[in-house]
Amino acid sequence: DTVFHPQTLPDLSNLLTMSGMMEYLGATSFGNHRSVLQFDFKESLPDLGPNELLIQVAYVELNPVDLQKLNAKPSQDVPNPPLIVGYGGSGTVLEVGSGLVNQRTDWVGQLVAFLCDARRPGAYATHVAVHVQSVAKIPFAISLEHAATVPLAGCTAYESLVKLQIQPSTPDQHRKLLIVGGSGGVGSWATLLARARYPHLEIICTAGSELSQNWCLRNGATRVVPHSSLVANLGGGRDGSVDYILCLSTPTKELANDMSELIRPYGHVCLVAPPKESL
After folding, report:
1. d(C-alpha 27, C-alpha 6), whole Å
2. Which part of the chain is the Enoyl reductase (ER) domain (predicted)?
C-alpha cells in the first residue's frame, strides 16, 4: 500500500474550504484508472451527519480495492457520478456534526486517521465526511503520511483475525496460523497484530522474493514458505497441518484445494478476496 497526497496539487484546500467547495479525483465512467480519473471536478463540501466529522485530507491510502471499484463495469457510465474512491487516509478535522457540538473543542484542529464508509464518496479529495467512530487521533510521534497507511489495511487485518477466532495457546499446543500473502499491507498488519496478541502462535507466511520473505520475518513470522507447493511444504491430509488460514490472495481452485488439505478439523479459514471462478 502507498499513499497519495492531495496537497501535491495546487494547494487550493484553504480557499476551497472558505468558499464551501472541495476538489476531488473522480470518474464518470468505469475503466482503467489511468484513463477515467480526472482532477477537474469542483463540488460543495459534503453534508455532515449528526455524528460525522469534516476532515481536510492530507494523505490517502492507495489500495487495490480502489482499482477494482473503478474497473467494476468497464466502459459503462457511473450512476450518480462522479465515483470517488479511497477508503483510508489522514488529515485535519475542520468541523463536527450537530450531534457532536459538545465535543467540538476535542476534535476541531486534531490530526486524525480515518476509514471511509464504502457506500459514500471516498477520500481521493481535499475534504471528506467520516463517522466519528471511524476516526482516530494520531499520536504525536506518528506522521500524517505514516498514519494514512493504517486504517484500511490495519482494520482489515484486525477484523480478519477476529473472524478467525484464534484461541490463545501455550508453547506446547503448537497452534499454527497460515497467512497467504504475508508481505502486502493487510498481511503485514496481520502478522504484526497476531504476533503481539498471540506470542506462542506459530505464524507461517507465504511470500515470493527474498526481500518479501525477510520483511515477513521482521514483522514476526515464525517462518516463510513459497506461494506454491503449500501442501508439500506444510503437510496435508485428513488431519491437516494448520489451525487457521488467512487468505489474502484471490483463491483459485488450486489454492482452495491446498487450503482444504492444510486446514485441521474444526479449523477456521478467512477469505479476504472473493474467488473469480466457482470453487
Report:
1. 16
2. 32-273
